[in-house]
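Students often ask why inverse folding is considered easier than folding. One informal answer: many sequences map to the same fold, so there is more than one right answer. In these notes we will look at a single instance of the problem. The structure comes first.
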């Protein structure tokens, strides 16, 4: 099985481009200047504010939701994005039905059978039913809110949220700090290689959740799940698409972030379909953890399902620790039965994947990777990494992050992000080849609630 999601369509390189000197990399550098502008307010509803940043095919929605309950936050999200969610859900399903032959080739055999027997929607409903007993109630509450706010059928929104559980993405995980970077920071790349042609790309959305002081009362109601973590709910942002309430990549006010990549392993019996969907576990960790340790404890205690790789970053913004010790990054192999945690010293050391001090990385290929491209680029640019050099010289040349590509700079407290643009007649299609927008995350988390 080739676990990369859907089919990755080739992009015809245009003339007069700079290719890598490394023959193992087939991409070209991304010379687009970083877009640096303030988000513009578009609309306000009770408990919500919508902004946009960028223009044309690079426009990104920034949707802030506030409140004391997941339902209220979901409702605000549904209201603010009603038109988009109403368009996106049927368009996405229509697209998926057109791709169903391809989907059947890349999913595990038993999922292919579910789809063959039940149809795609039926297979997603089955996924919902078997994961539901392990899913904290706030996900259903928020989905109910999104449905009521947008007017879109709740069952459809639920189905969209089950897709990542069935079809996982290839992607790259990279954390870099210390000697590898310029200055003193932690850089974290989440490159989503999913399906850059999917119509969801034009609904690029960062959803910023601002649970208010009453929210603690809501979660206290669910003692059992929570008491073990002594959780504190933080504001956090999901980098993704409207109505997809789990996390593909997320970052919190406490400077905790997670990004994912599929983990294809020959070991059998380490995955399960019965558990809390991985996008939901990631979101809970980002919302409630305040350190690498609490994040790992939450993941250890979660009822996990699929096998995925994760990059977990944390940064103590106001710590008395020195600049070299106030952050952490771990690579994680995550599955129902295993949770293996890697620092840079624990990474494989092969010709294609040299160990690099202060760098944790997995490229978009099956691990351990035999493709030397990413490793050689990291060697070449070691010591000179920052968000710009990664976008200019690394994700572009290694052609990773076709659907969505982002680099978090923890010290700057900013994200540099791009989405694919299937409708842009001039191209390029892939996120890693497009202009990235810098967004000040500290400002987003400080955005006040509407009156
Ligand atoms: C939190 O938001 C809810 C709306 O969901 C509102 O009724 C409540 O007053 C807010 N609580 C605080 C402490 O702001
Ligand atoms: C961190 O420090 C900044 C100013 O240096 C302050 O505005 C912010 O409230 C502090 N955050 C926390 C979580 O203490
Ligand atoms: C990209 O790599 C080239 C060649 O090593 C280097 O000259 C250039 O400064 C790099 N660009 C950025 C933005 O770091």
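Output (designed amino acids):
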């Amino acid at each position: 099985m080739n676990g990369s999601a859907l089919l990755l369509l080739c992009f015809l390189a245009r003339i007069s481009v700079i290719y890598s000197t490394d023959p193992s990399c087939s991409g070209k550098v991304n010379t687009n200047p970083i877009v640096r502008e303030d988000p513009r307010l578009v609309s306000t509803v009770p408990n919500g504010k919508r902004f946009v940043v960028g223009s044309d095919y690079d426009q990104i929605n920034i949707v802030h939701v506030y409140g004391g309950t997941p339902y209220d936050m979901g409702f605000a999200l549904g209201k603010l994005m009603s038109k988009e969610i109403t368009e996106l859900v049927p368009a996405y399903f229509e697209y998926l039905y057109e791709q169903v032959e391809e989907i059947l080739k890349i999913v595990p055999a038993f999922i292919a059978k579910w789809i063959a027997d039940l149809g795609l929607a039926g297979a997603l409903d089955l996924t919902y039913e078997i994961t539901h007993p392990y899913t904290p109630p706030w996900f259903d509450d928020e989905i109910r809110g999104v449905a009521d706010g947008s007017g879109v059928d709740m069952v459809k929104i639920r189905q969209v949220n089950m897709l990542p559980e069935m079809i996982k993405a290839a992607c790259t995980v990279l954390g870099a700090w210390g000697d590898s970077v310029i200055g003193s920071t932690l850089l974290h790349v989440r490159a989503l290689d999913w399906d850059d042609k999917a119509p969801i790309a034009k609904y690029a959305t960062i959803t910023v959740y601002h649970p208010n002081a009453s929210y603690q009362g809501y979660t206290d109601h669910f003692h059992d799940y929570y008491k073990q973590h002594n959780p504190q709910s933080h504001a956090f942002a999901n980098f993704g698409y409207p109505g997809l309430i789990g996390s593909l990549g997320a970052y919190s006010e406490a400077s905790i972030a997670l990004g994912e990549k599929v983990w294809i392993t020959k070991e059998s019996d380490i995955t399960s379909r019965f558990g809390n969907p991985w996008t939901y576990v990631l979101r809970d960790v980002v919302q409630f953890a305040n350190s690498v340790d609490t994040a790992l404890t939450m993941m250890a205690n979660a009822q996990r399902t699929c096998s995925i790789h994760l990059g977990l970053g944390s940064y103590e913004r106001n710590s008395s620790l020195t600049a070299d010790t106030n952050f952490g990054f771990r690579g994680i192999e995550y599955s129902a039965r295993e949770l293996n945690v890697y620092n840079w010293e624990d990474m494989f050391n092969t010709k294609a994947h040299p160990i690099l001090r202060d760098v944790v990385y997995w490229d978009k290929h099956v691990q351990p990777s035999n493709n030397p491209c990413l490793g050689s680029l990291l060697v070449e640019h070691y010591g000179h990494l920052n968000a710009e050099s990664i976008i200019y010289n690394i994700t572009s040349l290694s052609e990773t992050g076709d659907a969505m590509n982002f680099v978090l700079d923890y010290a700057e407290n900013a994200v540099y992000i791009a989405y694919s643009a299937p409708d842009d007649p001039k191209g390029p299609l892939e996120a890693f080849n497009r202009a990235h927008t810098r967004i000040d995350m500290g400002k987003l988390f400080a955005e006040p609630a509407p009156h």
